[in-house]
Amino acid sequence: MVSDQYWATPVPQNEDPLLNADHRFSLFKAEHGKYYATQEEHDYRFSVFKANLRRAKRHQKLDPSAVHGVTKFSDLTPAEFRKNFLGLKRRFKLPSDAQKAPILPTNDLPADFDWRDQGAVTGVKDQYEIKCWITGKGWTFCKNLKNCTTGALEGAHYLATGELVSLSEQQLVDCDHECDPEERGSCDAGCNGGLMNNAFEYSLKVGGLQREEDYPYTGRDGTCKFDNSKIAASVSNFSVVSVDEDQVAANLVKNGPLAVGINAVYMQTYVGGVSCPYICAKRLDHGVVLVGYGSGAYSIIRFKEKPYWIIKNSWGENWGEKGYYHLCRGAHAHNLCGVDSMVSTVAAVHVNK
After folding, report:
1. Shortest CA distance to 191 belongs to which of 214, 174, 168, 208?
2. 39, 68, 71, 100 - which has most CB atoms within 10 Å?
3. CB-based burial of residue 22 (10 Å sphere; 0-12 exposed, 13-18 middle, 19+ buried)?
4. 283-294: per-residue pLDDT in tens?
5. pLDDT tens digits, one per residue of 229-250
6. CB of 200 closer than 8 Å to CB of 179
7. 215 and 232 in contact (C-beta within 8 Å)?
8. Residue whose C-alpha is closest to residue 238's, from 312, 147, 158, 349
């Protein structure tokens, strides 16, 4: 269901999106603790903010079952947003020897399913809050796809052991440099992005991942400090799920949360609801965790019920549906925004410590 209270502000569709822009910008700065070092920077960010108000209105027309508006990313240009917050290698190609997940029966799938109800999902992390200020020009950020890798392994570890642990993304940032030998430039590169299957391969090779508390997230590239005596979860195997919505759902139910690639073009302005855009590219640029699905969610725009995927993101609870993205699924939404194109399932083994 759509949340009763949105953390962000929708842009009214029956008025000029720039109406009261000064007031909206003042509220935005206060809510998100924004500070700009110079008047020049302030004025530039205000111009970007106004451009994003217009963009949110365009997104609303293209995606009327969701709500789009002011978010904590509204002072970033689309290019800055992509550069700093989306970390999936864009020239993605599955390796020819990728292990394929077996085809599962789909006739008895539940109408609704959510791993959060089973206690298999850790809380939403906020990588956005860790930033490094640059004089006069915003910040750099570790555009870390690793949350989808750790999120899937956290769920698999829970299924294998009954223990829910928050795993270290920083270990992957610092230590994972796995490459796909068939694709030039496909090596995982810390804050410069990578692929979740590469990260699973790294985890398999070194024995596993430490807890987040033992190897905390900094949001910056660092020297590898992996300690194999503190491994908290280990990969048994991983595989690629068929580009088929029913198989994605079946693997989700049987194997736990899934690592998923997605096109995030609508996510910068997403406030809530079920995103079901008329047009969405399938070029993948962001890594997320698929934790469940619903048979229908109330749409405040179309007044219809829309089946949807429940997607865990890494931008904090003050983004989207308290940190989650709802993307429509079903016969008319097959592989929307590429969500079925790159899906990985992982199995874990018990670690005796």
Report:
1. 174
2. 68
3. exposed
4. 888 888 999 999
5. 999 999 888 888 888 899 999 9
6. no
7. no
8. 349
